[in-house]
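Progress against Task 2.4 (sequence-to-structure conversion) is shown through the following example record, which the project officer requested during the mid-term review.
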Amino acid sequence: MKTKDEIVKNWLPRYTGCPLDQFGEFILLTNFQNYVHKFAERFSCKVYGMDRPMQTATNSSGLSIINFGMGSANAAIVMDLLTAIHPKGVLFLGKCGGLKRSSEIGHLVLPLGAIRGEGTSNDYLPPEVPALPSFKLHKFVSEKILSKGLDYRTGIVYTTNRRVWEHDDSFKERLKTYKAIAIDMETATLFSVGISNEISRGALLLVSDVPMVPDGVKTEESDKVVTTNFVDLHLDIGIEAMMEIGAKGEKIKHYHY
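C-alpha cells generated for the chain above:
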C-alpha cells in the first residue's frame, strides 16, 4: 500500500471491524463505549469492533457513531481514517473540564475554536493556523440546542496531551492566561486534522468536572452521576442534529486554499 487512500480504506475496517459500505454519510465521534451501545440500543443496530480498538454502529438513516478512544493521537487517527469514506459532517460528543468560576457540571459547550496545546496537530498544520470548527455545522447544532429550550456556552477550549495535571498549581496558573472556557484532550486535534483532510467538523462538549478546584476533580463516583444525569441528553442532541442537518441545515462547504 503506497497511497494514503489505500491505507485508510484498509485501516478503517481494520480498526473498527466494520466494512466501508456500512458507514453513514454523517458521523458522531465519542470517547466512550457506552455512547455507542446507547446509540445501538436506540436504533436496534449492530455494534462492530468489540474486539477492535474502535467500536462503531450505524442506523438506518445513515448516521454512524464511532468510539475512537481517548487523547489527541487517537483523534488524529480517526480523522485520518475517515478520509476513506469522505463523510459530509463529523460531530464530536466529548466531555471537558470547565475552567471558569461559572462552570457547572452538565453545561454544554460549543467551542469557537481550540488552542493547540497537544502537539499532535503540528504534524498536520503550521502552529500559526487556528483550530476551528465548521461554522454552519455549529450553527445548526446551536439551533437544535435552543429548540429544546436549553442553553450552551461558547468560548475557546484548551486541548492538552497531559492527562494528570490537576495537582500542578503552575500548570493551572498557565491555564488561566489562555482565557479558555474548558480543557480537553481531543478538540484541537479533531479540528486541525479536519481542516487538513477537508472534513467538515464540530464539537459539542459536556462539562463533566471543574478541575481547577480540588473538590471539582473527576472521580469514578462523580463520573457516574454525570453519566446518569446528562449523557442521554448529550447523545440526543448529537443524534438529532446530525440526522437532520442534511435535510434542514445549510449546505456545508470546505473551502480550498
